[in-house]
Amino acid sequence: MKLKLAALAIIFVCAFALVGGYAGFARRGGTAQNETEPNKALSGRIIITGSNTMAPLVKALAARFQEINPGVEIDVQARGSARGIADVRAGKATLGMFGRAIGDGELDLFGFPIARDGVCLVVHQDNPIKELTKLQVVEICTGKISDWRDVGGPAAPIELIGREEGHCHYELFMGHFQLAAKSVHPYSTVGDHEQSVKAIVENPHGIAYVSIGEGERSLHDGVPIKMLPMAGVAATTENVRRGRFPISRPLTLVSKERPTGAAKAFIEFALSPQATDLIRQQKFVPYID
């Protein structure tokens, strides 16, 4: 019995040490880098490519991080999540910006979620539609429903604005609604959120899906769009924070090897209290509150 108790005690201590180690990696930037004076000891160049959605946030994080660490140069390039993964694997980027959690096809990489976001449907603000069911969304995407009057709207054709394959929002949206690429028939296809929003503004009969963070920024700027709820839950970052919104995902930094030096310090910083206000300003949800 004494041997069993001793073994359990060792297991508990080891588990606690592992958890503490992860927390230290995730949060250490909030202690060592909370100094007001610049840290001149850290140096290096970090190249970050990938998700268009994440790019404004990562640029803001990079600017503040470089103020604290003037010896570090950070180059952030918005090229889409797929390109970010490819660049990291090819050694062309230190870190990749990936708009979801790493999956089975990315197990060769290290992933570090730094924030959360959701994906919602948007229509023009003049569209009287208030909400669509999951089945209605599927039938709109597959062409079974092609007129707004069939879902309680005006007599007008539904013009679905699709997204290019390879974007994380495309994968998240298609996966949530269990849609196959060959079954979806968009009116037009765009590459990023700004293009999706622009397409809806120019087309009162359109429907698209965008990042909730992007949607809230657009509404704040007076763009005439309407963000539709899903399953009765409003499309807001607050509902993403509370885990209520059904279509949400982490925003992840990925690396080919376990990060060290400046790259490790930057990830720690992104998970520290120093980054929280920047994440919220970009209409995302801090991964560690």
Count of helices?
11
Radius of gyration: 22 Å
Ranges with pLDDT <50 over ≥5 residues?
1-36
Provide the helix percentage: 25-40%
State which percent range the strand residues make up.
Answer: 15-25%
Give the rounded overall mean pLDDT: 85
Structural class by sheet pairing and helices: alpha/beta
Q: Using the alpha-carbon principal axes, give the shape.
A: elongated
Report the span from N to C terminus.
42 Å
Number of strands: 10
| Helix and strand pattern | HHEHEHEEHEHEHEHEHEHHE
Verbal overview:
The chain is α/β, with parallel strands linked by helices and 289 residues long. Helix content is 39%, strand content 21%. The chain has eleven helices and ten strands. The protein has helices at 2-27, 29-32, 55-68, 81-90, 134-141, 168-176, 193-202, 212-220, 237-241, 261-270, 273-281, and strands spanning 44-50, 72-78, 95-98, 110-124, 159-163, 188-190, 206-211, 225-227, 248-255, 285-286. Strands 1, 2, 3, 4, 5, 6, 7, 8, 9 and 10 form a ten-stranded mixed sheet that branches. Helix 3 (55-68) links the parallel strand 1 and strand 2 (72-78). The two termini are 42 Å apart. The model is unreliable at 1-36 (pLDDT under 50).
